[in-house]
Amino acid sequence: MQILNYNLEHDEFNEVVTIFAETNKGAKFHFTFSDTHTLREVKNKLLYLANEIDNGPQDR
Question: What is the pTM of this model?
Answer without folding.
Answer: 0.78
